[in-house]
Structure formats: structure tokens, C-alpha cells
């Protein structure tokens, strides 16, 4: 998949190719052009944009990039944005009509001329819907530019959501706080204001050009004062971008007046599992702070697979095809003969029953009626049960793979199994982080092992599934930890 970010005159490209081991080979590219690629988030010139994208892909390596599917990342301003609180007890079938009514009241265009989607964030007290829509006419220009170089846009992610995914795991839904995500680029500062549920504004909260002599701390401090006057006191500042690499957290916090949390410290602590998935095939390692928006879109696509501007909705019903039933002529002559013979037989049997006569009496007095006595069925012996053999847990080779997307879950399972007597345990990441049900894989030759592991983890997971593991596997059992593991 190609994760392509476009801004006014900038391209950032991250190419990820999945390997057999479940990791992703990565290649990346970034450039600022002299001409504007976008004009107010719309395509400025399809030919120029296509040429710039082709240059980016060619720079990665022509023989390397075979994937034609693109996840396009655009600034928030390219979308219509609505955020609304909905009743906690709203029926699932009523959510889409509710948000469409909100959109019609808040965006300056007909919702039917847009592609849209939304996602829901909630806690015990509150449910928020984050809604995005993009004009079909605007998106058509992007499709035209990409089709010129034989690429297809299969996913679309707003820039603000990509950034949100990079620090979402640090948030507590039950804690009310405002977070400013600031990207310190070479020549400008851009950023969005968030709370625990997601983006708060329809556009970038901050977008300021800077020079070498610019006091970045002063600009951010002014932004904090401006938001506090609006009743939104910023509790945390997250810094990303090339120029954030050398920022000292303590001095920056003091000068800006906002507790500063650099992204370079968040990622290793909360997103280590995702970093392990990315393997650079270039001479330099991937620069996380420069390509944050592309990596955020990658994480978003893994964790929010149901979010799509291109999915079919209830109103998009395919034209029904009508079928005519063949005319079948009934055989009237045969039916008449059947009905007649049935009626005659009924009358004869009825007459005989009234005369107290058996139909067998017409066979004559010399006929013998043979009575057949059925032979008794053979009785099967009672089944014998073989007791389940004991499991030598210390000798079982276990592999625990984290498929939950929650850092540290594999180690939690490892500790639980060690407490039960297992000793040979390896940990790692699953092929993705979207597992909802914990899976226990065992070989057909050791079926009892699956039930033993299931029972040993019963305190942490209620209903794991047991599936078949290949006999050639070096592990005796593989546990894929899902979101249901407590």
C-alpha cells in the first residue's frame, strides 16, 4: 500500500509491502515543490500533480513498487467536518440518519453530493460522533490525476485523524483535557487542537510561517493564551516534525507554559509494537518524526478498518433483475386418471369395512397368513472412556503473539502461563492487531494441549477459539492474544 500525503506544495510518501513474516518492508520519500500542487486543498492541475506523484514513486525504485493502491491523506480543510454528541441509548439503526441530519444542518452543500463516513468515540457518560465528508467533484479531480499514472485511491484519511492515532493511546476518555499537536517543520508550524475524543476544529488550529530567527516557543505560547480565552485551556503540547528532534522537554515546557510531550518519547513507549512491524529497506532508517502523518494513517487503517469513504451504504441498492417463471402445462389426462382410480379404491375399501370383511378374505380359505416377528437389534457395548493424559507443561514450547494492539499484552500472557508451569515461552507480534477473540493454535497430534492451555487462561479470557497448527511448526502451541484478553 502507498500512503501518500499531499499539502499545498508538499508530498510525503510511505510505501509498505507486507512480508511473509507479517512485517512491512518500508520505503519513503518527501519533497517540497516550487509550484503549488493543491489550491485550497483542491487539485491545482491534474497533469502537474500526476507528474509529482510519479517522480516520488520512481525515486523509491521503479522495480520495487508494484502496488497500485493508494491511501490518500489530505489536510482537514479538504473535508466537511461535523462533530456531534449523541444519546448514549440511541439505536444503531438510528445513528446514520441522526448524523446525516446534523451534517445537512452544518455543512454548506448537499450531503448526497458527497462521500462520507464517521466513527464513534465514547465512555460511560458520553458518546461523540466524528464525521467527515468530501465533495464527489473534488475527489473526482484526484482520481483523474492518479489514473494518469495508473494508480487507484482505495482509502482516504484526513490528516487530523492520522495525527490523532499517534497519541490516542496516551489518552483517558474519562479525563477532560485539551491537546495541541504541533508539527515543527523547517519553514512553518502547523497543528490541530484535540480533546480525548478527537479533533475539535474544522481547520488547522495553527499554521504559521517561521524563519531561523523565529521564536517558536513564543508563537505556541500565544496560541495557548488565545485558546484559553475561548475557554479551552491547553493541558498538553505534543511536538513532532524535523525541528522537534532537538527540543528539550523541561525547558520547552517552562518557556511555553504548557506541559510538553515530544512524540519521540511517546512512540517507543506506547507504539513499540507498530515500530517492530516496519522494516526499512533503504540505507537510512525511517524518520518517524518527518513521516508521522503517513505512519499515523497506517495505524489508523489497521485499527479502523470499517472507516471508509468508498463503502456501499444502505441507499446504494443495485438494480434488481426480474425473472419470468416458465409456463408449465400440466398433464390433465394423467391427473384425471390418477384422481379417478384413487376415488374408486377409496369407495371399495369403505364398502368392505362396512361389511366387516377383510381384503385378505378374497384370497380364499386355503391361504395362510404369515406373521413376521422382527429380530431384536444387537445391543452395542457401553463405551469406555480414556482419561485425558497429563500435560508436562514445563516441556511445552509456547509462542505468544500480540494481536490486540495493546502494548505489553503478550508479556501478560507469558506471565500467566509461567504461573501455571510453562517454561519455554517466546513472545512477538501477530500479523495484525485487529484480533477480537483470543486464538489457541495446536497440532492435530496433540488435541488435548489446546484444552489445557484454554483452562490455564480461563481467568483472563472466557471463550478463546482453538484452531489447527501446522505439524511443521517449531512451537507446540501458539496463543494469539486478542482484545478480549483481560
Would you spell out the secondary-structure blueprint of this structure?
Layout: E1 2-6, E2 10-18, E3 24-32, E4 38-39, E5 42-43, H1 46-60, E6 69-74, E7 80-85, H2 92-106, E8 114-122, E9 127-135, H3 136-147, E10 152-158, H4 159-164, E11 178-184, E12 188-194, E13 206-209, H5 216-229, E14 234-240, H6 249-256, E15 260-262, H7 263-270, H8 272-277, E16 278-280, H9 292-303, H10 332-354, E17 397-402, H11 409-419, E18 424-429, E19 439-442, H12 447-456, E20 465-468, E21 477-481
Parallel strand pairs: 1-6, 3-16, 6-10, 11-14, 14-15, 17-18, 17-21, 19-20
Antiparallel strand pairs: 1-2, 2-3, 4-5, 7-9, 8-9, 11-12, 12-13, 19-21
Helix pairs in contact: 1-3
Explain what this protein looks like in three dimensions.
Helix content is 29%, strand content 25%. It has 486 residues and is an alpha/beta fold. About 9% of the residues have low confidence. It has a 6-stranded mixed sheet, sandwiched between helices. Strands 13-12-11-14-15 form a 5-stranded mixed sheet.
Structure keywords:
six-stranded mixed β-sheet; 486 residues; alpha/beta; single chain; five-stranded mixed β-sheet; 12 helices
Annotation field: number of helices: 12
Radius of gyration: 34 Å
Q: How can the largest sheet be summarized?
A: 6 strands, mixed
C-alpha termini separation: 33 Å
Structural class: alpha/beta
- Spatial sequence of strands, sheet with the most strands: 10-6-1-2-3-16
**Rounded mean pLDDT score:** 82
- Unreliable stretches (pLDDT < 50, length at least 5) are 314-330, 358-372, 377-388
Structural shape: globular
Helix content: 25-40%
